[in-house]
Amino acid sequence: MAPNILVTADFTEAGLDELRALGAVTVAGWGVTGLIATEAETMRMFAGADIVAIGYEPVTEAVFAATDLKYLASIRGGPGANIDLLAAAKRGIPVTGTVGREARPVADHSFGLMLSVIRHIPYTDRLLRAGQLAGDPDADSGETGWGMGPRDPWNSLKGFELSGKTLGLVGLGAVGREMVKRARGFDMRVLACDPYVRDPGDVPLCSLDELLAAADVVSIHARVTDESAGMIGEREFGLMKPDAVLINTARAGVVSRPALIEALTSRRIRGAGLDVHHNEPLGADDPFLAMDNVVLTPHIAGATVEVMALHSQLVAGNIRRFCAGEPLVNDLTAGLA
């Protein structure tokens, strides 16, 4: 009997066509409305569904108890944030994710933040728009019209080149490996710290202390766990070079917020590029907003049009495997029960 498949994720038409070849497909929820349902709304939406291609709805133990779900295929790499994986495992309901779906765009964004910080790109854009980088009134117009004095842009806003610098990766998973590719395009040396990696390839592994002391740019690509929470703190910032830059497109909780604020305000490090924040959205009085050595983005490192096509393909492939009784890719409930 063909399954009833509910899609609450953002999904391509090509992906939906693959699912329609497997069963009856209904599209609803966040992927349609942009709104995340409540627990009660999720129960009603999931009623009658055998399989759900899920985005961000909360799937709690109560939801599992009230529905007849047989399989959840999440578009998220780490769906434990909205799905009770243990409750699913206890009921024998597999939950799969899409690890690595945002690896390429997050790596791109990380380098965008890196260049933005070290070359003062957003900062000088703001100064220009505010009329605070006026030219030298005594200079001839043309390419030297900004002036060449110590306070003029050429001398006061010097950045540094990435070529020959050391990139330290805290985490060498899917995003970290994409970072390696891009770093080599910039002729950077790469070091990584990752106690869980089995095959680092040709990337030298080192301790966190060694990485922090050697890196010109430290880029965070680790999940928040009991071991990693707050692992970049006051002591760790003290190990970094004064001209070092911190990039975080992973999780804010890996870094101590008070320690980062102190390191930036005291100019203990050169600057930071942050896509993830301890409080999202940022409050109007957040101290990072007043800092000229910080580039901020609103948790959009993985937000590209290509991501939807990739996760649609990955999810549809896993649903096809489930319907065929084949092993699933990235089963997050395996071994939990």
Which key phrases capture this entry?
5-stranded parallel beta sheet, 337 residues, 13 helices, 6-stranded parallel beta sheet, 13% strand, elongated
Separate helix tally? 13
- How are strands sequenced across the largest beta sheet? 7-6-8-9-10-11
Q: Give the beta-strand count.
A: 11
Shape label: elongated
Global mean pLDDT:
94
Low-confidence stretches: none
Structural class: alpha/beta
| Helix fraction by DSSP (H/I, runs of at least 4) | 25-40%
- Radius of gyration, taken over Cα atoms and rounded to an integer in Å: 24 Å
Report the major sheet: 6 strands, parallel
Percentage of β-strand residues: 5-15%
Order of helices and strands: EHEHHEHEHEHHHEHEHEHEHEEH
Alpha-carbon distance between the termini?
A: 28 Å
Protein architecture, described:
The chain has 337 residues and is α/β, with parallel strands linked by helices. The chain is built from 13 helices and eleven strands. It is 34% helix and 13% strand. A six-stranded parallel sheet has the order 7-6-8-9-10-11, with helices on both faces. β1, α1 (13-20) and β2 form a beta-alpha-beta unit. It is elongated, with a radius of gyration of 24 Å.
Any chance you could write out the topology, listing elements then pairs?
Blueprint: E1 4-7, H1 13-20, E2 24-27, H2 30-33, H3 39-46, E3 51-54, H4 61-66, E4 71-74, H5 85-90, E5 95-96, H6 103-118, H7 121-129, H8 153-156, E6 166-170, H9 174-185, E7 189-193, H10 208-214, E8 217-220, H11 234-239, E9 245-248, H12 257-265, E10 271-274, E11 294-296, H13 305-324
Helix pairs in contact: 1-13, 6-9
